[in-house]
Amino acid sequence: MQTGQPFNSYSGSRFGPALTLGVQLKPGLALELSNAYTWRHDVYHGSYNTSSGAVVEDNDSRLHTFTIPVLVRIGLTKAANPWHVDALAGATVFVYVTNRHYLQTTQGKTTRSENGTSVEHQASLSFGPSVRYTLTPQVDLVVDALANLSISGLPYSLAGPLSGRLSSHILAGLHYRLKK
Predict the structure, then answer these.
(1) What pLDDT, on the 0 to 100 scale, is given for residue 136?
(2) CA 79 to CA 96: how far, in whole Å?
(3) Which pTM does this prediction carry?
(4) Is 157 helix (H, G, I), strand (E, B) or coil?
(5) Which residues of 80-113 are buried (b: 16+ CB within 10 A; e: fewer)?
(6) What's the CA gap between 67 and 14, in Å, rounded?
């Protein structure tokens, strides 16, 4: 399961499923590829009066986010211990798909209507700690905490505040080893 939250956002966290595949390169070093999916549905209905008459707006948006990190996992503790602390570093691609339906009426007549889908991509550098607890020789309980620094739009995005380019993600779940 994955949660996601920009550091500077006022919206709530989003939860969704994630799948991670990894390969042990050597003891204490692994490469992981994940794919996580979160979604949000926003609906707005509002009205106000203008000199042209009563205006009614309806907006229905669905945001689908695909998070695809490629991470190196470096073990920081000895394998004999059931508790493991790892360092994670790599790159993450975010794909945002938005479906939007907007309708504006004035005095009961349609004055604006929009329907469409947009797709945006964002690349980030990702880093953070991970804690694992070995439940069985093949299963670990895992919690990863990642900070993501957007590198999309560089060098132009450097003009804005750093907080606008940072986001965080928590990934929690089970790691199952196919081979011991």
Answers:
(1) 92
(2) 38
(3) 0.77
(4) helix
(5) eeeebebebebebebeeebeeeebebeeeeeeee
(6) 12
| Burial classification of residue 148, based on how many CB atoms lie within 10 Å of its CB (0-12 exposed, 13-18 middle, 19 or more buried) | buried
Give the closest residue to 71 by CA, choosing from 169, 177, 162: 169
Contacts of 160 (CB under 8 A, 6+ apart): none
Question: How far is residue 96's CA from residue 101's CA, in Å, rounded to a whole number?
Answer: 16
Q: What is the DSSP letter of 79?
A: T
**How far is residue 22's CA from residue 176's CA, in Å, rounded to a whole number?**
10
Backbone dihedral angles phi then psi of residue 17, each to the nearest 5 degrees: -80, 155
Please tell me the distance from the alpha carbon of residue 48 to that of residue 40, in angstroms, as a whole number.
26
Distance CA 150, CA 160 (A): 12
Q: What is the pLDDT of residues 9-32, one digit of tens each?
A: 444 567 788 888 999 999 899 999
Task: List, for residues 109-147, the tens digit of each pLDDT value.
Answer: 999 999 999 999 989 999 999 999 999 989 999 999 999
Residue whose tokens read 């797709």: 119
pLDDT by residue (tens digit) across 50-66? 998 899 999 999 999 89
